[in-house]
Structures are given as C-alpha cells and as structure tokens.
Design a protein that fits this description.
This protein is of the alpha/beta class and about 260 residues long. The protein is built from 10 helices and 5 strands. The protein has helices at about 15-20, 30-35, 50-60, 95-110, 135-140, 150-165, 175-185, 205-220, 235-245, 250-255; strands at about 10-15, 40-45, 75-80, 125, 170. Helix 4 (about 95-110) runs parallel beside helix 6. The termini are close together.
Length: about 260
Amino acid sequence: MSHFGCDTILCFGDSLTQRGWDVSRNGWVAQLSEVYARKLDVVSRGYGGYNSRWTLSLLPQILPTTDSKGPRPRLLTILLGSNDAFLPGLKQHVPIDEYRSNIESMVNMVTDPQSAHYSSDTKILLITPPALGEKLYSSMCDLYVGRTPESVKACADVMRDIAERHSLPCVDLWTAVKTQAKEVGGELDGYDAFSFDGVHLNAGGNDLLFKLVLQAIKQHYPELDPSKVPHVVPLLSELTAAIKENEDFDIAQFLKFK
C-alpha cells in the first residue's frame, strides 16, 4: 500500500458532484466520505459548468492506468447531463447522440480490457441528472437560461439506457426528484424541497441522493457496503487490546496499512 493509505471512491461529474462537498447543504459526497472514513478515500472530481464532452477529456488524466501501482478506485460514480441539456446554440449544449457516446466512452475506459485504464477492481455507478424544477428555475432567469425539463429528461433517459445496456446499476435521481416533488407540491411544485435553483441540490436533494447511492451500493456491490469494508488501520480498541496483551509487540508492523 502506498503512502496515500487506501483505495478510493471516485465521484466524477459536473457541479452536482463538485457541490457534493458543500457541508452547509449536506453534500452527498461529504456524507459518503463520513461513512467510509478510514476505509476508502472519497475523492470528488466535479467540474462546475462542464458537459460530457469536456469531462471526457479529463477522465483519462484522473484514472490510474492498468499497470500503475498504489490506490485504485473501488467505485466510480458518473453524474453528468445537466449541462449537456442546454439547448442548441448555447456553448454547453451537447447533442444527445454525442452525450450517449461520451458516457459510453467513460464506461468503456474502465471496463474494456483493451483500455489503458481497464480495472476489473473498479465498479461503476451511473447517476441520472435530477429533474429540472421549471418554476424554480424560471425564478432564477437572470442567472440561468437555456435548459428545459424535456432536454434534461432526454439525458436522464440515455443514462438509464446505457446502464441497462452495460448491465450497470443506475441511481435514477431524475425520477426520484420528480416523484417526490410531486408529493410535496406547493407554489414551486415541490422542487424547492430538493433544489435551491431548480438544478442544483439543496440539503433535501443531497440527503436524497446520498440515500439512493448508498442503497445502490448495498444492493449491487455488497462488498462495498460501508459496514463490510475493513478499516485500513486498526481501531483504537484493537490497538490498546494488542498493547495490553503484549507491551513489547511490533507496533510499526501492527499499524501497517492493510
């Protein structure tokens, strides 16, 4: 094990991932980091404003190569589509067929044995963009323009289809937000319970996404269930018990990263 200590969970995407570290809004990435403390390092590589075209150029610079030594991603989450969903003519827009190709290229980067970044140890979890809260989004019209509920839905549909085609689990955040917002209702159609601007997650949205991600991990990758992933170094109780049993034991050997 290298000096970095332990393998990782790599969260990759746009601002929905970048903002996942925002503890003031119960960031879903921060919550993952908490449950995997001393087990797996949760690494956020979210790029606000980026689409799948631009992030496709970044991913091979982030992933370790197949023959590299040291920590590796045990899980890769991919959450993209909210920026691709900008309408044609806007700089972030990506045609839906290209969006599909870009996400599939990211998946193949890890799963294709011919890829320089192939890793049989890395599991993949795809996440759809959340449903667009149109009324809430429109209230921010001075800041945000150019997406529609339909354009975001198209990306969500493609993400689900890619997951099915590649036999990968998919967190359907789009359906979860849309369904639960409808149950909440109200002047902004309930989307303000999950988003602060119709696109980005507030505390309620982050809590929802964290819950769905953890459920998907436990269901599809039970070996990565936080309760089943061992600590990379002994707990204090284990250390003190070992010292009590033999004060002269080799502490340096005992504390080597697993």
